[in-house]
Amino acid sequence: MRYHSPTVQLLLVVVTLLLSTSVRRLVYNFLLQVAPVNENLSYDGYLSTGIIACCCGFLGIFLVNLTGIRFIFVCYAVTNVLCAASVVSYYVQGPSAFQVTAMLINSIGYDIGRVATLVVVLAYPGEKWKARALAAYLLVEYFSITMGDVIAMVNPGSTHERYHLSIAYLCLALLAPIPALAIAPSDQVVRDNGVYLVTPKTTLLTELRQTAKMFTNKYMLLLVPYMFSYPFLFGSAEVDFPNITAIVLYDAGKLFIVFMSQMLDVRWTGRRTRGLVGLALLTVFFAASISSTAALRLIKYDVSGIDLSWPRDKIAKYVMAEVFKEQYVLLMTSYFLAGAASSFIELYGYWVMGTLTNDLKSSGRFVGTYHSTMAIGGLIGYQLTNRTEHGAYTSNIPMYIAISLTCCSLVCMYFIVRRITETNDWTLGRMNYRGSGNQLEPERSSETIVVITDVKYEHTTDSTHSRATTR
Predict the structure, then answer these.
(1) Measuring CA to CA, how many Å separate 183 from each of 1, 73, 177, 349?
(2) In 386-457, at which residue ranges do the beta strands (DSSP E only) sit?
């Protein structure tokens, strides 16, 4: 394989993430003896880190588009080294300001790194691999969290064992910057047919203008409710994970994104039809998930045994053991369906954005906005529920609002999917259909549109070379 091929570059990204994100997710809770909490990647329940996630999506747009992919991954690998070093220092000298600062920096690095990762996963694979590449990335991310939670819950370990494991974690983290430095600049990535990725040069002023301009686009306005609503619903439903069974069932539901990705990629029909069928399946899983959750919450329970002074994890365990014991099967089913629905919605949203453009800069703007809007929705939903009496066990009003918003967002998504073409650009898509009554193959039409967009960019930015560009 060529060094500058998309496949090699994706492999370098994968190795970087395995040595940073995956390792940290596997050992972090175990090393610090942190109990698994209500953790969903679409939002952060803690107010401080949740606000950071909200800001970092938009910040990621400018950093990815102005500094490049390699710079982002190198910086994230370095922040992960700081995180690992802070864990080692925790065992040497106890809690310190360095540990708090390192965790904060790593949280910023993770959010910006996730924006860069999803941009690469959307832009680098060919058309028939986009959904499957997304599914593979999301599954690795989900299940590294799951395994880390299981390890933390079933094996308390000794201080001596955790200290030596923290040293091993630091050693692995120190390796992550090496593959990150080997990542090639995006404008040097070339597909097998000789077509470069579309990565036009940009400036800060251009990025500010183009990002603001996105919110005047009707398709972006239709995407915003979709980005916001389901994390808001998940946060307002406040799904806690008090035992291993709940965690495993939740992530087992996420396995269904493998089926979803196969359906979106395999060329059994046109891309628009696949998108509509995918939206129908997503709606079914959402309806099943919210129906089981609502059924549990609408049942009247005796919560007189709950002491408001208890910590949240103790309240969740009490509810699991005493309040929901007669509906245990329904409860476990709701975890499974919640996992399936949340993964479907995230995968499908990114896949639709991947049908909009092959331009790396435009992908960055979509992904960054998606990341921040999801974080805002989840954080608001979580805070609304968290600040009501007994949390999720008495107030259902936020959930009703969230269900209505999510239903509206699916309708909005329908109007977007109806306009999907076999190219990755609605504005230029018509050019491929002139004089042809048949739809082009997705892979071929995508390459055509890359060439057209690249020529258009060079022609408008460098008039002195316009003849050579269009020749």
Answers:
(1) 15, 8, 10, 27
(2) none
- Answer yes or no: do 146 and 290 share one domain: yes
CA distance 46 to 235: 11
Same domain, 230 and 141: yes
The pair phi, psi for residue 411, each rounded to 5°, is -65, -45
- Residue 217 is given by DSSP the state S
In the chain, the number of structural domains is 2
Both 325 and 437 in one domain: the answer is: no
Closest CA to 454 of 351, 320, 359, 347: 359
Cα separations (Å) of 34 from 53, 164, 310?
21, 18, 17
Read off the tokens for 101: 């600062």
- Nearest to residue 160, comparing CAs of 207, 91, 223? 91
Residues 6+ apart with CB under 8 A from 330: 292, 295, 296
CA–CA separation, 197 and 123 (whole Å): 8
Instruction: Classify residue 191: in a domain, yes or no.
Output: no
* pTM, entire model: 0.79
Q: Are residues 241 and 288 in the same domain?
A: yes
Number of other residues whose CB lies within 10 A of the CB of residue 171: 10
For residue 43, list its beta bridge partners: 40
Instruction: Look at residue 193 in the predicted model and tell me its pLDDT.
Output: 66
CB 351 within 8 A of CB 131: yes
Nearest to 350 by CA among 148, 120, 70, 5: 120
Q: Which residue has the higher pLDDT, 102 or 448?
A: 102
Phi-psi region at 52: left, alpha or beta (left = phi > 0; alpha = psi -120 to 50): alpha
Chain segment 128-145, per-residue pLDDT in tens: 788 888 888 888 887 787
CA dihedral 251, 256, 257, 260 (to 10 degrees): -170
* Confidence check: pLDDT of 223 > 80: yes
Please say if the pLDDT value at position 234 is more than 50.
yes
Interval 145-185: pLDDT, tens:
777 777 777 776 678 888 888 999 999 999 999 999 999 98
Q: Please check whether residue 142 lies inside any domain of the structure.
A: yes
Write down the mean pLDDT value for the chain: 77
User: CA-to-CA distance for 136 and 244, rounded, in angstroms?
Assistant: 23
Burial class (CB in 10 A: 0-12, 13-18, 19+), 281: middle
Model confidence at 386: pLDDT above 90: no
Cα–chain center distance at 406: 18
Q: Which residue range is the domain that position 462 belongs to?
A: 431-470
Tokens matching residue 427: 């504005």
- Distance of alpha carbon 146 from its chain centroid, rounded? 16
* Residue 194 located in a structural domain: no
